Model the fold of this input.
Amino acid sequence: MPPMPVDIVLLEAKPVEQTTEFVGTIKSRRQTSVQPQVEGYITRIDVKSGDRVGTGAALMEIDSRSQQAACSLLGWRGSALCDQTGLVSFRRD
Done:
């Protein structure tokens, strides 16, 4: 049997990329739950993902018309709902 033909190539030095792909999940070290004090539609978002915020900083604005209507309808003045949310402060006429 005759010998098998073999291809001959010249090698040259080249940099080898050091990359690897992995599948994984990233979890933050700290997290928090954000819940509104009142019910309503969000009309403005003041922060974006990744922003650092301090305690008491406004994150979003909620449409206050439904709370204003409720306070007006019930004639509440200085009530916890109207004052605590900072949305409305009504006086009964």
